[in-house]
Amino acid sequence: MELSSGLIVVKIGGAAGIDLEPLCDDVAAFVGEGRLLVLVHGGSHETDVIAERLGKPPRHVTSVSGHQSRYTDRETLEIFAMVVAGRINKSLVERLQRRGVRALGLSGVDGRLLEGKRKSSLKIVEDGKVKVLRDEWSGIVERVNVPLFRMLLDQGYVPVVAPLAISSAGEMVNVDGDRAAAAIAAALGADILVLLTNVPGLLRAFPDESTLIPRIPRAEIEGYSPYAQGRMKRKLLGVQEALNGGVRRAILADGRADSPIRQALAGRGTVVE
Fold this sequence. Notes:
alpha/beta
């Protein structure tokens, strides 16, 4: 596949196993070629590790729709913000700056970069029963501050975005990084969305990496949802939302590879277009 000359939005997964050094080398190479990029990153693994150390073990739940997520009460939200918008975001920015990239670290809270309604409760399935969790501080991105993104891109910056958003009431909320990246890609009219994770793409028989599904026709994407396990369900949902929003191509790819972005754009992974 030929590389597009348009905007690329890259979501860097937060699971263990992704090596940031070759990824940052890749970003620097693309910037040197004059390409426009927006980076969105997660931080689930590191947040879980630090939350354990702080005596606040993470609680992962499954919604009634079958999607896995982190139960985010206020204390968990503050730990998540500290780790993801602080430690992880600035570590990425530092690595990129070291390579001469004009990286600018932000969360969706800054400048109302990402806005979304807070979900104050969450319906989950636990032990075969439907339960309602209160004091939930998560949300879904409904608006993207396109003028702010465009201003940064026009000035040669690479936005590095942590998945937090601000509600209409001015409340910080946790948002899913894959769906946030999809919303950004759609709002900015990106050509390509790349979701990097710690597997080669969507697998027909998880965790057997030899069962990679290399291509999914856009019209058939819902038929592939039974193959998505765990966090992959939200990634596939993000792909669908991005394509519905006008993004031309979405790729689920291996963040552990050398030159992971370039390999993804060359068709390594699961390509939906």
